[in-house]
Amino acid sequence: MAAQAAAAAQAAAAQAAQAEAAESWYLALLGFAEHFRTSSPPKIRLCVHCLQAVFPFKPPQRIEARTHLQLGSVLYHHTKNSEQARSHLEKAWLISQQIPQFEDVKFEAASLLSELYCQENSVDAAKPLLRKAIQISQQTPYWHCRLLFQLAQLHTLEKDLVSACDLLGVGAEYARVVGSEYTRALFLLSKGMLLLMERKLQEVHPLLTLCGQIVENWQGNPIQKESLRVFFLVLQVTHYLDAGQVKSVKPCLKQLQQCIQTISTLHDDEILPSNPADLFHWLPKEHMCVLVYLVTVMHSMQAGYLEKAQKYTDKALMQLEKLKMLDCSPILSSFQVILLEHIIMCRLVTGHKATALQEISQVCQLCQQSPRLFSNHAAQLHTLLGLYCVSVNCMDNAEAQFTTALRLTNHQELWAFIVTNLASVYIREGNRHQEVVGDMLHVCSHCLRAAAFYVRGLFSFFQGRYNEAKRFLRETLKMSNAEDLNRLTACSLVLLGHIFYVLGNHRESNNMVVPAMQLASKIPDMSVQLWSSALLRDLNKACGNAMDAHEAAQMHQNFSQQLLQDHIEACSLPEHNLITWTDGPPPVQFQAQNGPNTSLASLL
Fold this sequence. Notes:
MAU2; 604 residues; disordered C terminus; 25 helices; mainly alpha; disordered N terminus; repeat
């Protein structure tokens, strides 16, 4: 017995020495690998060599699985060798499932591997992997919630919003059961965002009401609480803006702006939450700041405060440039494209077509770098090109661009916006397609419904049905005044002024044109200023007011010259050739033109 005990003790001592030796070589290799990975610049090849050197030692399963995960992660994040990354991550996932109490390695491997599958367009491999990981992670709250978010995001990218909403609902209920009201709110707000995208407004309203109550009642980390409030308010603001309710949104927008100011004064609390299910952030503070700038620009653009839109766009783009030096998150490129889309529309209104065209080219370059970004913004890009074509009187190209945009979108409000502009092209070209705006009066957006009445008024004006035109334009004015839609108000006033002038009612015409000019100057809207100054010139001449007529004529001449110079500059740019692009990805380069080839007549 004593001999057996001595032998057992010797074996145990040998095992302990072997384990200690194994731990020392493993820690040494791991230390070297981390040193090379964090070097400046990183020495990824040497890091990979150190990690690969672990396997000849035939390490225990735990070390083997973790090393496969580390290798897969390094290769995935720092190299283009996706095949080897996939092989290591698949081994990490396979081995870790056989080891009890090894959740972090197991679920991180599943999460990264599904990301890699998606990157390789193997979504059908990613879905079952995530579903299995979700199924076996119910006792690990952090990973269970994270994997639910990940699978919901995958369904969202595939435009399967119903499945994504179902998963987020499951996540909200799970978070409630494990006592995480914070993460429950994140799941519900994410679901609310998707319901807004699907336009399921009957479901959105009670959900947002519940979210508001949860956010107000939750007592926790101040930054997390304020970030929930920002998420909640961003959804409310975008909901109002999508509905074209520019005036009604102001209280929510003001709250949102105050909220982001509060967040910027708070210091990040490094104390980790006691509930592992609370270990989530919606967005970094800096990203939230850019997002608030973005929705402010959207509001200013719709309301017709274009100088304010310009100011906030400049601030947001400066912030984005700084962030993109350190952060390659795809959301930053999305923010940049949306900001550029809005500022391009501003430039076209304020008479800066050449700058707008260069910014359209910039959006093309951003979309060339990301197929997904292009897929999400192709319709908007062709719409912007259509608007540019209208501004330089290339009506055939405008029609082609708008028709392409209609083919590429299934978003109701964007479709309505394109149809409005396409209708104005048809009217200007003498094609009397009244049916093109018939369905637009049924869209949800207050702003677009008002625009539809304006287009119908314009159509009636060109047909000489002046009373009918006045009726439509007064409807536009009523709707525009209700929600402070300044550009539509200015356009309606000047067209009404034109109608009264044609009818010989000079006093009433003057009563319309003078406020139109004032509002257009405030926006500033160069085309309405040009139109108004021409009408004021003719009105004053007809009334015998020679000095006022001369002053208006001088204004008209100045606006004409500015627009003409900008027109020539824009049409001379190589980017002007973009107007012929209607198919496939954006062109990579442009050939310079000898000079403008578009009609200038309607500008003067």
